[in-house]
Amino acid sequence: MSGTFQMRDHLLQELETGVRTGAELIRRIRPEDWAYRPQDNMRSLQELVHHFVQITASDLVIMQEKGEAEVGEVENRLSGQDDPEQLATILRSNFEGYKDYIVSLSEEDLLNRSTKAFYAEHGHLQAQWQIETLTHVFHHRSQLYNYLKQLGHELHFSMLYM
After folding, report:
1. CA distance 90 to 84
2. Who is most buried in 37, 53, 67, 144, counting CB within 10 A?
3. Across the strands, what pairs with 124?
4. Per-residue pLDDT tens over the stretch 52-70
5. Torsion angle, alpha carbons of 91, 1, 115, 61, to 10
6. How far is it, in rounded angstroms, from Cα 62 to Cα 60?
């Protein structure tokens, strides 16, 4: 296996950790938690979870150069959804679809194929998009962890790496 594919797989393993541990956080959400909003200018817990669950799906359509309407449709698919188990299942399914795409790329495409998001002036290489998705997931997983801590959930940082 080439070094490129080894790095791709390491990044996918890290992304899977973020998805798996994020799903465990989602499963802890109580019905009364959904409306929580730390400040007026921040997302509610439900809005945050919906965004988090859709990251790999929306980032995938962005990196495949889909338009704003299609990206918006992906990002709004979960409207009204508040079942933690279903949301955790969708999170995993979205990750699997994303992973299938990344693994399908040739080494040449991973390293040299540039695609441009509908909102950007310049494109990114597929490998750069993979890193962007990883950091995006971990950013919002951290927010989710903090929201739940603020709601009084018993959490320990070690659960983010188990």
Report:
1. 10
2. 53
3. 115
4. 999 999 999 999 999 999 9
5. -20
6. 5
Helix (H) or strand (E) holding 62: helix 45-63
Token pair for residue 131? 């890193």
Tokens of 155: 């959490």
From residue 49, alpha-carbon distances to 33, 62, 75, 117 in Å are: 11, 19, 11, 23
pTM: predicted TM-score of the whole model, two decimal places: 0.95
- Collapse the DSSP code of 124 into the 3-class scheme (helix H, G, I; strand E, B; otherwise coil) and give the result: strand
How far apart, in whole angstroms, are the C-alpha atoms of residue 16 and residue 96?
A: 9
Q: At what angle do helices 84-104 and 126-150 cross, to 10 degrees?
A: 160
Q: Which of 55, 68, 62 is nearest to 117 (CA)?
A: 62
Largest CA distance in the chain: 49
Which residues on neighbouring strands pair with residue 114, listed in sequence order?
Answer: 125
Among 44, 48, 41, 54, smallest CA distance to 25 is for 48
| Cβ atoms of residues 36 and 82 within 8 Å | no
